[in-house]
Amino acid sequence: MARLKAERAEMEARIRELERKLREASAREEVGEPIASDVQLEQTLRRLMHSTAMILQAEKSVFMLYDPESGELVAQKPAVGLDDEQLRHFRVRATHGVSGEAFRENKPIIVDDAINDPRTIQEMVALLNVRNAVTVPLTVEEKDEEQRVVNRRTIGVLHVCNKRRGQRFTDEDVRLLVIMAKQAAAVIRNATVYLQLLGERDQLAATLQSLMAGVVVVDTHKKVLLLNAAARRIFAIPEREEVVGHPYSEVVREEKVQNLIERVLEHHREVAEEITLYLPEERVYQVQVAPIYTEQKELTGVVTALNDITEIRNVERMKSAFISRLSHELTTPLTAIKGFVSTLLEDEESGNGELYDRATRLEFYRIIGSECNRLERLINDLLNVSRIEHGMEIELDFRSVDVPEVLRRVVQVYEATSPRHRFKVTVEPQISPIMADAPSVEVIFNNLISNAVQYSP
After folding, report:
1. What is the per-residue pLDDT across 37-49, written as a single tens digit (0 to 9) for each?
2. For a Cys staple, 78 with which of 46, 251, 390, 419, CB 3.0–4.6 Å?
3. What pTM does this model have?
4. Which residues of 106-128 are buried (b: 16+ CB within 10 A; e: fewer)?
5. Is residue 32 scored above 60 in pLDDT?
6. pLDDT digits over 287-344, tens only?
7. Do 160 and 58 touch, CB atoms closer than 8 A?
8. CA atoms within 13 A on the CB side of 222
């Protein structure tokens, strides 16, 4: 009889040991595949919370994360045995209660009588209807390449409350809960980092898509990793056409750009070149291609940026044309002034001053004055260009202008400075004065006659 009792006791002990090992194995197997979304994270944590409550035979399980901005431990979804209203109000200072003590001191705590335990916060005990509980810290570990722990950080706590059938939580429950908490912390940390990286990646992708410059990213296998909307427009690729994973030579439909990408892939050095593309209309692009390296200085691909500088080049050409025209405009009145001054000096140096009568000399002086005024207007035009570039309005003096008279004055200047050309002005008698800016009208006539003189034999 005694031997049977001993065998029974041994058998019960072995059963309890097997149950313990089974529970421990169940606790260790709760972490599944890597988390790839918020939904998957919640599903994994929900499964973990339910398994925690089931393995420890508890009515409630919930985890809290530390919020550094508020200095509080805040209950998180999903939870077992708590409704949304209870979760919303379950938050405590990290310096208060059992939650704060387990968090600050990074140690498990068993509470056998939540109502009478001085460490508990009675408002929370009443809110959650807690009889007894066990609380363990959620601690994440950072390891080096050799899997040695180099840093530990507590991110929150894990609560399990109300042992079923009126029982108390034991040291064995604490040991199992520590295992569960370790896995929960790892899941939360890894998922948070992964989701943060996904968010940053999506934000970067959105930024690249919104850029005015075309961006193409190619890996070392010459496959396209990214093509933003601007690049699609440049190479006339439909929005719905899938290009990621395709050879870049099929996507970048321009040999000059392909050659630049090939050079960087081969020589691992940044290149920049100005290229004119006809896809289909002529556009000028500043193309920059740069290698992409990992932290270990390994080449992972190249990035190509195409900046449309067509308008910049057009403006530069317009400025060049403006400067050329301005040089011509300045030369014409200066030539006239110099010619009339030389003529007057020759008359004075002849000794008798009788080559030209007084009326002719006065006309010469008038023309010199008129050409000086013209130079002044050209200078004002330069100032007007500066005003336009700064968004300011130019000043025009509208008044009655005698068009034939303005034309005769302009022709008179060219008659004196271009003796090998003959000028004839024919004006319809019915032409009436117009409301205009007289200097601008004179500039128009000057340009027309100057071109006629320049391109006439």
Report:
1. 567 777 888 888 8
2. 46
3. 0.47
4. eebbbbeebeebeebbeebbeeb
5. no
6. 999 999 988 888 999 999 999 998 888 888 887 777 777 777 777 777 778 877 887 7
7. yes
8. 14
Residue 118 near residue 91, CB atoms below 8 Å = no
- Mean pLDDT throughout 439-451? 83
The reply to whether 211-308 and 313-454 are identical in fold is no
CATH architecture group of domain 313-454: Orthogonal Bundle (1.10)
Rg (CA), the chain: 44
CATH architecture label of 21-193: 2-Layer Sandwich (3.30)
| Per-residue pLDDT at 431 exceeds 50 | yes
Boundaries of every domain in the chain: 21-193, 211-308, 313-454
CATH code: domain 211-308 is 3.30.450.20
- Residue 33's pLDDT band, with cuts at 50, 70 and 90, is very low
| Whether 181 contacts 139, CB under 8 Å | yes
pLDDT (tens digit per residue) in 84-117: 999 999 999 999 999 999 999 999 999 999 999 9
φ, ψ for residue 336 (rounded to 5)?
-65, -45
> Is-contact 228 208, C-beta < 8 A?
yes
Query: In the numeric block, which tokens belong to residue 226?
Result: 């990214």
Mean pLDDT along residues 141-168: 86
* 3-state SS track over the chain: CHHHHHHHHHHHHHHHHHHHHHHHHHHHCCCCCCCCCHHHHHHHHHHHHHHHHHHCCEEEEEEEEEECCCCEEEECCCCECCCHHHHHHCEEECCCHHHHHHHHHCCCEEECCCCCCCCCCHHHHHHHCCCCEEEEEEEEEEECCCCCEEEEEEEEEEEEEEEHHHCCCCHHHHHHHHHHHHHHHHHHHHHHHHHHHHHHHHHHHHHHHHCCCEEEEEECCCEEEEECHHHHHHCCCCCCCCCCCCEHHHHCCCHHHHHHHHHHHHHCCCEEEEEEEECCCEEEEEEEEEEEECCCCCEEEEEEEEEECHHHHHHHHHHHHHHHHHHHHHHHHHHHHHHHHHHHHHHHHCCCCCCCCHHHHHHHHHHHHHHHHHHHHHHHHHHHHHHHHCCCCCCCCEEEECHHHHHHHHHHHHHHHCCCCCCCCCCCCCCCCEEEEHHHHHHHHHHHHHHHHHCCC
